Amino acid sequence: MSTTSEQLADLSATTLLRFATAGSVDDGKSTLVGRLLHDSKSVLADQLEAVEAASLSRGQDAPDLALLTDGLRAEREQGITIDVAYRYFATPRRRFILADTPGHVQYTRNMVTGASTAELAVVLVDARNGVVEQTRRHAAVAALLRVPHVVLAVNKMDLVDYAEPVFAAIAEEFTTYASELGVPEITAIPISALAGDNVVEPSANMDWYGGPTVLEHLETVPVSHDLTACHARFPVQYVIRPQTAEHPDYRGYAGQIAAGAFRVGEQVAVLPSGKTSTITAIDALGESVDIAWAPQSVTIRLADDIDISRGDLLAPAGDAPATTQDVVATVCHVADQPLAVGQRVLLKHTTRTVKAIVKDIPSRLTLDDLSQHPAPGQLVANDIGRVVVRTAEPLALDTYADSRRTGSFLLIDPADGTTLAAGMAGDAFASATAPVAAAQDEEGWDF
Amino acid sequence: MTTVTDVHDTDSPFALSHLDSLESEAVHIFREVAGEFERPVILFSGGKDSIVMLHLALKAFAPAAIPFSLLHVDTGHNFPEVIEYRDRTVEKHGLRLHVASVQEYIDAGKLRERPDGTRNPLQTVPLTEAIQQHRFDAVFGGGRRDEEKARAKERVFSLRDEFSQWDPRRQRPELWQLYNGRHAPGEHVRVFPLSNWTELDVWQYIEREGIELPQIYFAHEREVFSRNGMWLTAGEWGGPKDGEPVVRRTIRYRTVGDMSCTGAVDSDATTLEAVIAEIAASRLTERGATRADDKLSEAAMEDRKREGYF
């Protein structure tokens, strides 16, 4: 960073935006990410020198910004990206955590991983090719993971003479498609990552575009929403009982608020037991507060001495989730070994891990065209499918649409601990207008 | 916690500042490990990242004591100020400290001194054996993903085999905030609560929380000599050599590690505020400026991680 008063303003508190990128090397994704880091002055002199040296040694005449982000030797040798990488940059207005995910077809699981914690996803397309199968796949993953904001970055505008009609047609096609999948907010931006148009600096070549640059949009998109409208949820992580002379009777339930807000004086239910009590105190890492909200880590104390342990969930007494042992969900399969009907697994939901069995895999979904394939029998790496899982103990499970944190779960192989699948309870998409939707059965599956 | 009014880019009543978000996430990680593991340990060197880790752990379990012990892999070339700080901190919080000593391994003939005098790469064996000996199943490290390109792909929960090896292809996808810590007997999990913090975040947090640091992080006069473009401290570890003149300069350290490979920077910053302003204006990343051992090759860190390094 150069030191200006603006840069030092950077030192005051800002919010943090977590976002993910999706797109392939051919679309110029590494160049876009490199450009964001470079033009926001987040690339420092020694990193740039290393990139320049590496570019020169390969006979490239200009520094290859993509090299800023290729981390592992195998990737550098093969010129591919094989895993999610996390990058950090800041502007005076906001801090950013970028989950940089490879967009190649067999890396669906990486994109799902990156999108799982993202508030925003940038989907990249090549202006010359427009919306292709892979673009539809990226839109579907963003919709499936309920990423609140999606940016369509139409790249390589310099190669189509910065022509507005080219951009407008791609933007319209993508917006129509993603809206049908229920993506709540879509912003399309024409860019050239290589030349720098509309990434950080406004483009002089596209007067016809009046919207924000990619970075301006990242800086201004809302990151926090009205939590009072959410169902409040608090998974208990750990019970704090000092049992010291100073604190002989302290019993606090430690955890991170998963959704909504909790107040002192509020009546809460403990799930799955259903017992109720009243919040007497909230300790917010060193200070006592009257209200706390997601995603704060706090310790909650209750009026009654009831049996509560790790894995239990606190919720407002009048707004508690139902408990269930029959989980119907969409999963993304993330392991090399398959997931089959009848398989015994562990299911990790919030702070609770229970034994479970895969009762049924009703369908597998092809993300390119959203067609579904009934009764595949098993799911393999990068498959997206519907599953029915029976758990050994009741879970206080929300739908993923209601709460990304209390509606998500992992399926784990009990034998070696491998994470098999990432699950999202309830319907797959926000809207049921998938292009190749089969007739809905009584379970209400919507693809 | 900061109050809402401190967050200047939003008027939402529910906004969290970036430091509050990061703090909340780190505390969640500490509590997750306490809930799921039998024998966790915090790697504590007396450097700023491990000091911040310890501070977060203390907050996560207050008013109770932290349910972990500490482990320091001592290269034998540590700054005396840092060792003194380490011991004082351990005593103050009534913690249990394990020390794995590189010097003892060298004295016993189990490790050989490198020709360049650098002992950082020698830490891997004592660390691995201490983990095996004490049967630690979760090992907290202060590593951050912004430090180095190989670390950018590191998980928060990083699975290691019985030889402590890191296999990038065996790492589990990490989704939402659901950390999978299952492991076979003999394996362990390295846990990085500061994964998403940057150097600047760490310093700002130290300032906000009023955390005390060893004095070598602040500008002071010291006898140093130049090697590989860095100011190194003269000492018994193998410097200066002939032709490396010793000079007195006003310097400070940005990272604290083995004296043989931790370089100082010219600085007049004697306060946290001044240090933060200097870092914000810096044109060099933390390791690039101060760590000789990461410059060995483009893939240096990746190779050492595979072998079980931090």
From TrEMBL, chain A:
Domain Tr-type G: 14-228
The EC number(s) this enzyme carries: 2.7.7.4
Claim: Hydrolase is one of the keywords in the record: no
Entry keywords, A to Z: ATP-binding, GTP-binding, Nucleotide-binding, Nucleotidyltransferase, Transferase
Broad enzyme group: transferase
Organism, scientific name: Streptomyces ficellus
GO BP annotation list: sulfur compound metabolic process
Alphabetical list of CDD domains matching this protein: CysN_ATPS, CysN_NodQ_II, CysN_NoDQ_III
Keyword Cell inner membrane tagged: no
InterPro entries the record matches: CysN_GTP-bd (IPR041757), CysN_II (IPR044138), CysN_NoDQ_III (IPR044139), G_TR_CS (IPR031157), GTP-eEF1A_C (IPR054696), P-loop_NTPase (IPR027417), SO4_adenylTrfase_lsu (IPR011779), T_Tr_GTP-bd_dom (IPR000795)
Name this protein carries in UniProt: sulfate adenylyltransferase
Record GO terms (molecular function): ATP binding; GTP binding; GTPase activity; sulfate adenylyltransferase (ATP) activity
Pfam families named in the record: GTP-eEF1A_C, GTP_EFTU
Domain of life: Bacteria
Automatic annotation (TrEMBL), chain B:
Enzyme class at the top of the EC tree: transferase
Gene3D superfamilies linked: HUPs
Keywords associated with the record: ATP-binding, Nucleotide-binding, Nucleotidyltransferase, Transferase
Entry EC no(s): 2.7.7.4
UniProt GO MF annotations: ATP binding; sulfate adenylyltransferase (ATP) activity
Segments forming domain Phosphoadenosine phosphosulphate reductase: 40-263
GO BP term (any one): sulfate assimilation
Annotated region described as Disordered, given as residue ranges: 291-310
A Pfam family assignment: PAPS_reduct
SUPFAM superfamilies found in the cross-reference section: Adenine nucleotide alpha hydrolases-like
InterPro entries: PAPS_reduct_dom, Rossmann-like_a/b/a_fold, SO4_adenylTrfase_ssu, Sulfate_adenylyltrnsfr_sub2
PANTHER family for this protein: SULFATE ADENYLYLTRANSFERASE SUBUNIT 2
Family: Belongs to the PAPS reductase family. CysD subfamily.
Protein name, entry field: Sulfate adenylyltransferase subunit 2
Record organism: Streptomyces ficellus
